[in-house]
Automatic annotation (TrEMBL):
InterPro entries: MeTrfase_RsmB-F_NOP2_cat, MeTrfase_RsmB-F_NOP2_dom, NusB-like_sf, NusB_RsmB_TIM44, RCMT, RsmB/NOL1/NOP2-like_CS, SAM-dependent_MTases_sf
SAM-dependent MTase RsmB/NOP-type domain residues: 165-438
Species in which this protein is naturally found: Nocardioides gansuensis
Organism superkingdom: Bacteria
Keyword Manganese belongs to the record: no
Keyword tags: Methyltransferase, RNA-binding, S-adenosyl-L-methionine, Transferase
Protein name as annotated: rRNA cytosine-C5-methyltransferase
């Protein structure tokens, strides 16, 4: 696109990526949601869409590392936020993408002139030329603390995670030697994984559309490339985009052994609806039915839209407070409580989350998680099962919440709990615990 008849020409994918960073910083947008909107607005497709996606998402993931490098190249580290956004985009092209140095520098300078003004253009040009003098590994050695003296500080810079996040993940990880691998995996773009909703689509259908079947969920197919919306099963709601770890959580609830009645299921925190759609399809096959509950009205509407193809297995979608449910105790045979959490297990997919979350957020989240699990246990019948899940591995949100529930009740038994990891399993770091009410 051109900024005025005489202004500098701005490369469209780079301009789109810049607008994504601005929306995330100024409007509090989520990159994975605003990216498709801006890509469509700017009519990007194919390589241009892929370039803009990697440039925006990769820059947000690695901005901690890039800020340390940028600051090392400045006499005065204070910069306008919009100039820093442009510099981060340029650094990502230089150090993490196959973009020639001259192209990365010149297009970033043009972007600055068009979107910010001519004033900062010389500074941006000078900083990026300094950055181009070394590769990423060399820069990390220059700007990160000595790993032998401050291993956490080194990881903070080398892998672009806030210190408290590094410490929380290290506490949760059962193999300390894998911490670097975990943090590195958080900076990899996630695979696009599809779910073939049973009775509506098949894995073979998705494989025929270009997917590759996975082994960790019997309904999961990785899509190596292309637009998922272009696959008929996805466009029709018979299949969907869903991480394999998320699928495993839903299956843990649906597949748990059960004696007696198995007619009514509950998804207590259903938004945005991926697990509900899978569970409703499974319920329909078994002659059961699912009630999807979501506190936020706009998210409940997302659940309603996302489960239309699986209506045969759905009682309905309600917008209600899961901690104060309107149904009677012991109503359900199976309950899933996918609790609101810090989201630190999905940092590949939500790149801005690591920069928005703070340790104090747990002070509000953990009591809510405890209340929701308590409500789920009250909602299930004796002999029924509850699966408590989070897309966070943080101990305070996972094992500690379950331990508190077990300590508070003598009619609940823990049957299983597990933790997935992106560097081991190629999924989000999902946690799940299966509890049975006795």
């Amino acid at each position: 696109m051109a900024e005025g008849r005489r202004g500098p020409r701005v490369d469209r994918p780079r301009a789109t990526a810049y607008d994504v960073l601005k929306a995330v910083r100024v409007d509090g947008a989520y990159a994975n949601l605003v990216l498709p909107q801006l890509v469509a607005r700017d009519r990007l497709a194919g390589r241009d869409a892929a370039f803009a996606t990697e440039l925006a998402s990769g820059t947000i993931r690695r901005q901690g590392t890039y800020d340390a490098i940028i600051d090392a190249c400045l006499d005065k580290p204070r910069l306008e936020a919009k100039v820093r956004d442009a510099l981060r985009l340029g650094v990502h092209q230089l150090l993490a993408m196959r973009v020639p140095d001259h192209a990365a520098i010149s297009t970033t300078v043009d972007l600055v002139r068009a979107r910010i003004g001519p004033g900062p253009a010389g500074l941006v040009n000078a900083v990026l030329r300094k950055v181009a003098a070394h590769d990423l590994d060399a820069w990390v050695r220059r700007v990160a603390p000595d790993p032998s003296a401050d291993p956490v500080g080194h990881a903070v810079v080398a892998h672009s995670h806030p210190r408290w996040v590094v410490e929380a993940l290290a506490e949760a990880l059962d193999a300390p030697g894998e911490l670097d691998a975990l943090l590195a995996a958080d900076n990899d773009a996630p695979r696009v994984t599809l779910v073939a909703r049973p009775g509506l689509a098949t894995v073979d259908e998705l494989v025929a559309a270009g997917g590759v079947a996975r082994r960790d969920s019997r309904f999961a197919v990785d899509l190596p490339g292309g637009d998922p919306a272009g696959i008929p099963a996805v466009a029709e709601g018979r299949a969907g985009v869903q991480d394999a770890g998320s699928q495993q959580v839903a299956l843990a609830m649906a597949d748990a052994p059960l004696d007696g009645r198995d007619a009514l299921w509950l998804d207590l925190c259903a938004g945005p609806g991926g697990k509900s759609a899978l569970l409703a399809a499974l319920a329909a096959e078994r002659g059961a039915a699912l009630l999807a509950n979501e506190r936020q009205v706009h998210r409940a509407s997302l659940v309603d839209r996302g489960t239309r193809a699986a209506r045969a297995g759905l009682v309905g979608v309600v917008a209600g407070d899961g901690t104060r449910p309107p149904w009677r105790p012991g109503t359900f045979d199976r309950v899933l409580v996918d609790a609101p959490c810090s989201g630190l297990g999905a940092l590949r997919r939500r790149p801005e989350a690591r920069w928005r979350r703070e340790p104090g957020d747990l002070e509000a989240l953990v009591p809510l998680q405890r209340a929701l699990l308590g409500s789920a246990l009250a909602s299930v019948r004796p002999g029924g099962v509850v699966v408590y899940a989070t897309c966070s591995p943080v101990v305070a949100e996972t094992r500690d919440v379950v331990a508190d529930a077990l300590a508070a009740r003598d009619d609940v038994r823990l049957e299983d709990q597990w933790q997935l990891w992106p560097h081991r399993d190629g999924t989000d770091a999902m946690y799940a615990a299966t509890l049975r009410r006795q």
